[in-house]
Structure formats: structure tokens, C-alpha cells
Amino acid sequence: MSTEPLIPFNRPYATGREHAYIDEAIAAAHLSADGRFSGRARSWLESRTGADAALLVHSATGALEIAALVAGLGPGDEVIMPSYTFVSTANAVVLRGATPVFVDIRPDTLNLDESLVEDAIGPRTRAIMPVHYAGVACDIERLDAIAKHHGLWLIEDAAQGVMASAGERALGTFGQLGALSFHETKNVTCGEGGALLVNDPALVRAAEMARDKGTNRLDLTRGLADHYTWLGPGSSYAMSEISAAFLWAQLESAEEITADRLAVWEAYHEGFAGAEARGRLRRPVIPAGVRHNAHMYYLLAEDRAARDTMIVRLADQGVHSVFHYVPLHDSPAGLHYGRSHGNLAVTTEMAGRLLRLPMWAGMSAEQVDAVVAAVMRVLARGDGSPVALRER
Ligand SMILES: Cc1ncc(COP(=O)(O)O)c(C=O)c1O
Fold first, then answer.
1. Distance of CA 278 from the midpoint of ligand 1 (Å)
2. Residue range of the domain that includes 204
3. Which single residue of 85, 297, 324, 336 could bond 89 by disulfide (Cβ 3.0 to 4.6 Å)?
């Protein structure tokens, strides 16, 4: 068994300009938030997505927390969300004293099942927080219509959705608020980072203040005030100029990075077509009208045992694959702070079957072929002897 995988799960992409831009930020003697690179990144995100404002923050986690603040969530409020998501979706709600209500996902896209949402809406429901899993849009238009019909907030967790869209609209711009992530594992990165997309001009000031410790410090930065003061609840969510300089290098190449990842995604997809036709595994489903960003390539094994065996057998061949979210609804915190609507059977099943394969911009055709071949060898072996992950 190799300890260092020959083919790692992720390799953060670098354009080569990151150092120069960070040097430029140092020379400009502005390293905290909202310097010139932050300004460029913000404008780029706004014009690219069409959001009224794209506030640079230290993480998508932070963006979701600001969203919960701006929406005024509090004790007694309920927020509908998938259980098959990252902890940050639920934490943002729980930190405000509100309750996540977990609803099952669709078996095709693994996104919130919009057909179950109306039934979960009750007198305490204040918001719907869907996730665009793997950068593949959920049925956001339907969810938008449901939210509008019931007078609810729509807050999109588009952490994985940079450069992806539904129809002509960027993910994160359907709800009043949307969160993007630039974490190391995301398509466009600055190590740790994110953006809050604000899609209602009336909310921009509140979001900017929440991001800036509950103050109007940006008025001072913009020369609109000679001092700033505390106006409401907030925290320190802004992105540093050092991260923004790194991010700017990546945003400039966002098209190329996405195209590169899409080529890897397509190669995997073609490589596994035969195995899917033989019923040995299932490939991701991309609904019509959805433009995804190749954030991840996953497979669904026959069952949890087959998935776990696959991870170990791939590691034996030098391929690092991983499972993904552990459902929140039956986690210790999920049981304590949230509640489930329905039995979430699809969530439990899919979380057990899902396997993420190596994926990064710049991955070679030979590497993709090697991963496909390694998966095929495991399937061909079909030894029927599940290997527990904890053995290793
Ligand atoms: C769906 C989802 N939401 C939120 C996050 C949190 O992103 P960040 O690491 O930028 O806080 C992630 C990170 O993987 C995610 O997958």
C-alpha cells in the first residue's frame, strides 16, 4: 500500500501570478480588507454574476453567517435545508438560535428535493437554504417560487458553485443572499475565502455592516464619513488584501480553470459510461439547462460496503478517493439543534454510496485514465469482501 498517493485527491491550482500580486499589495502598504485587489475582485464578481454586491469574506461559512444575521433569524425560527451538506449551512442558523429543518434530497442531483419543501413549511419557517451540490444547480427556480409564495428568505449555499449557473443566471443570485467559497478545495481559491452575493440593493448596507463588526467602517473607507461607529450586531468577516491579491490572480483565469476542470469531468464521465450501462455504478446527473463547473466528479457505488471497499482498493493503487458529507440530521448536533422532516432515506443511502474521485485543474489525461482503470480493476475484481475503512 502506498502512503503518498500517486494521484492525490486535490491539487490547488496556481496561475503563477499570485506571488507578484501579493508583492504588489505589500508595496501598496494595504494588507487589511478592501484594498485595490479586493476592489477588483469585488467588481469582477459583481459583473460576472450580476449580484448587486459581492462582499469578500474569509469563508463561505462567514458569508452564510452574515446571511443569517441579515435575514434576522432568531430563536423560534426554522430554516429548511438539506441534511446532505457541510456543517456551515446549519451552523449559520444555529448560531442565531434558530432551528434547521432537514429535508431529503433528490436521488439524481443529490440536491434538496423541492417537491418535499412545501410540506415542511410551517408557521415558524423563515427561510429556505438550498445547496448547489458539486456546483450543479438545485431546482432553484422552483425553490425561488416557493419562497416567494410563502414570503420566505431564500439563501443559497453556492459554496461549490463559482462559475456555474442555472439558465443564464449565476448560482448564488436567485436568493436575496448567496454564499461562494474560495477554500483550497474549490475551483477558484485563495486558501480560505468566500463571497456573499447580495441580490437586493436594500440589503447591501446591512450586509456590509454585519461583515464589518456591525459598523459603518466602509463609509469611512469611501470618504463618506469622518469616523465610524457601532450600529448593530456583526463580526470580523472580511477577507484580507493578501488573500484578495491571491484570489485576483485566480479570478483572472477563472474561465480557463473551469474549462480545464470540465475537460477532466467529461473524460471521467465518458470513461465510466460503460460501467454505468452495466449497472455497476452510477454517474452524476446534470439536469437540462444547468451549466455546472466541474467542481467534483463523484460516483455512486452499489452500496456503502462497495463504496468503502472501493476507497481502500483505490488507495492500494495509489489513487486517493474520499467520501463526502456525513448527514447532519442524525449527527449529535443535528439531533440536538435541528429536526428532520420525513425520514431522509435518500440522504442516508446516497451519503453511504458516494465516492469522490481526484479532480483538479491541470490533471492530465493519463492521470484520469489511470483513475478510471483503477476503478475498473476494483469492479472487475468483484471479490465481494467489503473492507472496513477503519482497517487502514
Ligand atoms: C456546501 C458547503 N457550504 C459551505 C462550505 C464552507 O465553505 P468555507 O470552507 O469557505 O467556509 C462548504 C465547504 O466545503 C460547502 O461544501
1. 34
2. 18-252
3. 85
Q: Is the CB of residue 347 below 6 angstroms from any atom belonging to ligand 1?
A: no
Q: CATH no. for residue 303?
A: 3.90.1150.10
Q: What pLDDT is stored for residue 388 in this prediction?
A: 46
Q: Is residue 350 part of a domain?
A: yes
Task: Tell me, rounded to whole angstroms, the distance of Cα 344 from its chain centroid.
Answer: 21
Q: What's the pLDDT band for 2 if we cut at 50, 70, 90? A: very low
Give how far Cα 170 sits from Cα of 29, 154, 160, 161, 203, Å: 34, 15, 12, 8, 19
> Over the stretch 326-347, which tens digit does the pLDDT of each residue have?
999 999 999 999 999 999 999 9
- The count of domains in the chain is 2
Q: Is residue 39 in a domain?
A: yes
Could you give the CA distance from residue 161 to residue 182 in angstroms, rounded to a whole number? 10
Using the mean position of ligand 1's atoms as its centre, give its distance from the Cα of residue 59 in Å: 8
Average the pLDDT over 91-108 and give the result. 98
60 Cβ closer than 6 Å to some ligand 1 atom: yes
Decide if 48 contacts 172 (C-beta within 8 A): no
